[in-house]
Amino acid sequence: MEPTKSRRLQILDLVSMSTPPLSVSLSQCTRLFGASGFTRLCKGLSLVLISLHILLHLFPSAITCLALIPARTIPFAWNLITAGYVEQSVYGVVVSTIGLLFIGKLLEPVWGPREFLKFIFIVNFLTSLCIFITAIALYCITGQESYLYMPFSGFHGVIFGFLVGIKQIVPDQELPFLKIKVKWLPSIALLCSIATSFWSLEAASYLPTVIYGTYMSWIYLRYWQRKPETKLKGDPSEDFAFSTFFPEFLRPVIDPIASIFHRMLCGRLDASNDAQGYTLRGEPLPGSDPIEASRRRERGARALEERLATAPSAGELETDATEIV
């Protein structure tokens, strides 16, 4: 096997040793996954966001076809897909582009380009679908037609979803200067968005997208994302439970409520995962035991730190990471 391929496989093995993923530093992850440049996929998606914003600026009437307007979603059903990539303001396209480039540079090498693109598509589509259903429900309850004709669009739902992905990968890493653990980023960002919506009408229009984007991304990562190294779906760890988005004192209240929705929506998924390999005849398989998983995380973390200490140049690592499929 070629040396570069061998090194890539070793890096993937080290990352896949943990369940949940390794809690290494953000600086180490950035070094490992190409700190000197953005990925091609992220740059391509950024070009799409900028191009659609320019198109909307030149032809304002295009918003009726591209943005999600609940009253016109039928027959224009494609806006459930296109709405997630259309930014209506310069501020929105700047924030979304920067977030996509910098956060995507960390997440894409971990997930792989195909899974990264799949995550974006699914989260955008489900976010638009939830907004459509909510708008129809609010119209039926209140009778106000404004809910049907308000244009919803933007990539910010996926950006908030990326924060959930970072929470999953490096939950216990502290941000420099702020002394805040990464696992609180989605909660803090969502709380700030809700607070800002009370003073700004424009911020209020973003609120449904960021709320559903955060929740749908957690649903996908928690229950649906398939792990290539195990062929299982989701992340069943307690560190990624829904209650971890809330302060410690609220968890005794959140957990019972979340468990009800978990059984209602994901009971079959649990049975499927058990049948595939989380358990066998009621006994956990090797690697699924919490104590064993903790040991594997520690071994993987030590091995990854040793690898980073003797890592080759940043240019070689960037080339290696971008070639991983």
Automatic annotation (TrEMBL):
SMART domains with a match to the protein in the record: DUF1751 (SM01160)
Superkingdom classification of source: Eukaryota
Residue ranges of the region described as Disordered: 279-299
InterPro entries named among the record's database cross-references: Rhomboid-like_sf (IPR035952), TMEM115/Pdh1/Rbl19 (IPR013861)
Compartments, record wording: Membrane
Gene Ontology CC: one annotated term: Golgi apparatus
Transmembrane regions listed in the UniProt entry: 47-69, 89-107, 119-141, 147-170, 206-224
GO BP field: retrograde vesicle-mediated transport, Golgi to endoplasmic reticulum
Annotated membrane topology: Multi-pass membrane protein
Alphabetic keyword roster: Membrane, Transmembrane, Transmembrane helix
UniProt name for this protein: Peptidase S54 rhomboid domain-containing protein
Organism this protein belongs to: Glycine max
